[in-house]
Design goal:
binds zinc ion; alpha/beta; 13 strands; seven-stranded mixed sheet; 7 helices
Length: 289
């Protein structure tokens, strides 16, 4: 692999402090990474095509950043110390702070692709893990952080949408095994990562198009919204999970006939969120609260 481990599409026309990121839609694997799990098992953890589904974002004044690398290789939506000691060959030089998901095999570097299906089937050397951080995880986070910081510096506020897709039913590694999922799950860390009106704008726009929308159930948001949100300092982040059955054949990993309609509806969502942000910064320019 060459170049940056992410794609960046900047705003076209009038820029708004609204940033979309897609950390799990990448598929590029460098030649030095050799998983043991079958491709089909690895692909189930991927939010395939999510970057394309939100492809209209730049036309509405928003930056769109998407990881080029797959989540199974290194997960940009986990904290850097959320490591699985069982996966490391040797002594890790930093601190290790595995979360609950990590103990289920879904840490920053995944141990399991699917229940009972190890990604590598061996431990990784410290230097291998450090290279994954250096060449993939860290540049992705730098790109997201830079964009959010530049927007915040220019406008005094920033709104961030962390974009994902979810299997239509959870498996044994998920918090809701076997349960049928709604069309969308909007997460705000139980009210901690964004102003309620921004969450409501997303939820109401989606529900207004007839989608079944949950809030924080079963997904509240994870590292990306936690790391970059601070509503008290006017940094607002939400996570949006969308049901893969809306746009892809989940066993063949291909878009299906619903893809274009979903992309059009996501453009309606993007336009609504852009309108929200424009009103927020416009209102404040005129000195109202
Ligand atoms: Zn995801």
């Amino acid at each position: 692999m060459s170049g940056t481990p992410y794609t960046y599409h900047g705003p076209e026309g009038e820029a708004l402090p609204l940033v979309f990121d897609s950390p799990h839609s990448g598929t590029e694997v460098p030649p030095y990474v050799c998983p043991a799990a079958p491709r089909e098992a690895l692909m189930t953890g991927s939010d395939l095509f999510v970057d394309r589904l939100y492809g209209a974002a730049p036309r509405h004044g928003c930056a769109l950043i998407a990881a080029a690398f797959p989540r199974w290789m290194i997960d940009a939506n986990r904290a850097p110390d959320d490591l699985d000691a069982e996966l490391i060959d040797g002594a890790w030089p930093g601190s290790i702070n595995p979360g609950r998901k990590t103990l289920q095999g879904m840490g920053v570097i995944r141990r399991y692709a699917l229940p009972g299906v190890p990604v590598y089937g061996r431990r990784l050397a410290v230097a291998e893990i450090q290279r994954l951080f250096r060449e993939h995880y860290e540049p992705y986070h730098e790109a997201v952080r830079r964009e959010l910081d530049q927007c915040h510096a220019r406008f005094g506020a920033v709104w961030h949408v962390d974009c994902h897709s979810m299997k239509s039913r959870g498996n044994a590694m998920n918090d809701d095994p076997g349960r049928e999922r709604p069309d969308f799950v909007v997460g705000d860390l139980e009210g901690q990562s964004a102003e309620p009106a921004f969450v409501a704008c997303a939820v109401d726009t989606l529900a207004g198009m007839g989608y079944r929308v949950n809030v924080n159930d079963p997904y509240k948001g994870a590292y990306l919204v936690r790391a970059y949100s601070n509503p008290g300092r006017r940094r607002h982040s939400i996570q949006i999970e969308l049901n893969r059955a809306l746009y892809m054949d989940e066993s063949r990993f291909e878009p299906h006939q619903g893809f274009d309609a979903l992309a059009r509806n996501l453009e309606i969502l993007i336009r609504a969120l852009a309108g929200f942000v424009r009103a927020r910064i416009g209102r404040e320019k005129r000195g109202k609260p």
